[in-house]
Amino acid sequence: MGLEHYRAKRDLKKTPEPAGGKANKGAPLIFVVQRHKASHLHYDFRLEMRGVLKSWAVPKGPSLDPSDKRLAMMVEDHPYDYKDFKGVIPEDNYGAGIVEIWDHGTYAPLDLPEDKDPETYLMSQLHKGSIKIRMKGRKLKGEFALVRMHTKEQNSWLLIKHNDRFAKKGYDSEKDTLKSSPINKALASERKDGKPRRTKKAKLPDATPEGADAKKGHAVKAKEVERVSSSATPTKKHFSVRGLSKAAKVKDPVQPMLASPDTAAFDDPEWLFEIKWDGYRAIAETGGKSVRLYSRNGLSFAEGYPSITDDLRTIQRNMVLDGELVAMNDAGRPDFQLLQHAAAVPDTQLVYQVFDLLSLNGQDTTSLSLIERKELLRKALPDLEHIKYCDHVLSRGKDFFAAAQEQDLEGVIAKRKDSIYQPGVRSKSWLKVKNHHAQEVVIGGYTAPRNSRKHFGALLLGVYEKDKLRYVGHTGTGFDARTLKELSSTMKPLERKTSPFADKVDANGPATWVSPILVANIKFTEWTRDGHMRHPVFLGLRTDKDPQDVHKEKVVAHTSGTGKKKKAVSPKKPKSAVVNENKARERIVKDGRHSVQLTNLDKVFWPKEGYTKGDVLAYYERIAPLLLPHLKDRPESLYRTPNGIKGPGFFQKDAGGNAPSWVPSVKIASDSRGGADIDYILCNDLGTLLYLVNLGCIELNPWTSRKQHLLKPDHIVMDLDPSKGNTFDEVVKAALAVKVILDRIGIAGYCKTSGSTGIHVYIPTGGKYTFEQLAPVAKNIMRVVNGMLPKTTTLERSLAKRNKKQIYLDHLQNRKGQTLASVYSIRPKPGATVSTPLDWDEVRPGLDLREFTIHTVPTRVEKVGDLFQGVLGKASFPLTKVARVLEDLLVDEDA
Q1: Which domains does the chain have, with CATH numbers?
Q2: How many Å apart are CA 680 and CA 668, to the nearest integer?
Q3: What is the pLDDT of residue 348?
Q4: Distance separating alpha carbons of residues 894 and 281, to the nearest angstrom
Q5: What are the start-end ranges of the H helices in 437-534?
Q6: DSSP annotation string for 754-810
Q7: pLDDT reported for residue 834
Q8: Mean per-residue pLDDT, 820-831
Q9: What is the pTM for the complete model shown?
Q10: Treating both helix axes as pointing N-terminal to C-terminal, what angle do 686-694 and 613-631 enclose, rounded to 10 degrees?
């Protein structure tokens, strides 16, 4: 069908709906269900196929009741980017009204033949009029069918839920909505008034100073940039903030909306233009003494910029603000290097330039148009020494860009006046046009200093192509004495013997290599034919960037809603080259109000099997409902293997302080550190789980105790760890011996594969007893097992002393801080095996660990459920009886 019908029905200059978008190749197919209050309330059911969203209007909404056969009218294809659309379609536009996202997730065809491509198979089902799929969303789960009805129109279908374990009789989609949703608020308002309420057109500012200038036909001069940067306040005010009730401010971090690069400046009456500040993007949350200021990836700026934090504390209104932290030099211009040294130079002139308002007095403003949000912001934001409103000009992007060039600023940001705020989305409704070529790079080494220079000569720079660091040049300019000294001290601990670059480096002399961890900001004149930067100049380090996210960037040309390229003025200096060229490598997952940016999805973690980092993330996202209850409130000892199973791995316990502020953690005094605290992460939600996996945590290692009672574990762990000379059938026999003992005592035990070579048995204890009380129980159980199987098992811990054909009966895991791979955890082992719970009937000779993998386990748990559920329940563990029976068994063994 294509998007011709979609575009023909809409004036994309007048509606915030997206015009296009490209799907991520190789990623799971997505679906979205949008609740739409237009002339009548209905639901829009959309499935990704062939780069677009095949769409059906479902008047009564999807149902989880198999007896409901919901009418679904097929409508025009929608662009892929429509999956993220929510907000208000203005009056007098097609579909005018409120749109909200009701559910979203991934889906796949049922009964896919092995030799068929999923989308080709789905398209054939579409043409035949019978689509059968399995959905994985927040609300829609399990199997569904779309069946075309035999009518003249050929667009009438039925949406039917299959009768599986996710089916619910009497389901009502309207009852499965938030009362606070925009549509429900509108419906409540209508019921109160007794009549429908139409969407009002926004009253837009029409007499700002820049608007007056435009009527006179004056060009924007350099002084206009100065006026904008000093945030002069217009006299007319169009939006009132009086009477808005105060409410608790947003507590969860927001990922900022991002601008797409453009080739050149342009004029357009539907757009406004702001200064592109050369600083750190920052979200602020205000409302009294408790304020927050954090980076785009959730790192706190509050302690590093106290003057701005102090000003934020004086703001009484509850607001969520978006802006840029900037250091101004003596000429009144932004200076990124000054910002780098702000902590060491107390009199640095710091300013938080605020250009957007995301929440006001607890009211979400993201669905308002940009021009409305800025007018509210202009009135609500007090003029403080270190906090300024970022003004704009209307329509005249060419003149404004020329003025920015005259002032030698970084560039301009162009924004559609009617754009809604989309957290975490790089939108084509916001565009950036740079005055200079600029590129983020990773430092991979440095050369020795020459002549009178100290510390180092030049930095060796690279960008990532997939998982390989490619050399793009070196720079020895842009440093003062302090920067040379500080950067040298920072690089010293990172030195290594081998080059981190995948290609040959022409360093013009001996090089000292460093681990590719530091990200720098560089400006330069142009790219050479061999892909190197010409005349690069160091601007400063980017502490808010992950090196793996640094890629060579390219620009895209701005087009109007009709697709025709705008006439543009070329920059006086060489054109910039800026946008992520490999979007398929990244995606953003939203968990409630958290947004987690997932990167390097195509990085191969298992070279032989071909499994990628994206496959690991997809597995954990799918298994999370079963996994998270087993991780909740348990400190995590991170084991990170960021380069896959063939690369080195390392443990990291003290990780809470480096995580985004919304990631829960607990500080625990460490005996090995002389009582100093270790900040352990608690993996309590999907956002945190995906954050950990994105760090390279293929496996998860929680404590056996929770933060509420760290010295009292919830279970005893029996770790049956074979030597190389053991068969797995011998491990099975040892596990069955444990089961015999537990049956003899009269207590429950739950078995799982280790995901590596062994078996774990968990015995729930209810969190009532200390490690010291339970450790003897674990030891005595293992002693009895060893007595039953003396030839194939041992209690000898030392590898050197251990018989190479004996299973180590490890009872020493039952101590504070000890960890094992969690149930449902992937292991960084060949085959991408998973630690999988078993029914005791499955623990038989012939059991094969290789059957339980990242590929097979999700399907298995859909059939059998959580066989480890009993570990979570309230356990009755009679310690005295257990100890007595074990003593009797040991006496029997000795006899």
Answers
A1: 4-183 (no CATH), 220-235+250-434 (3.30.470.30), 441-552 (2.40.50.140), 591-703 (3.90.920.10), 715-894 (3.90.920.10)
A2: 7
A3: 82
A4: 70
A5: 481-491
A6: -SSS-EEEEEE-TT-S-HHHHHHHHHHHHHHHHHHSTTTEE----TTTS-TTSEEEE
A7: 97
A8: 95
A9: 0.41
A10: 140
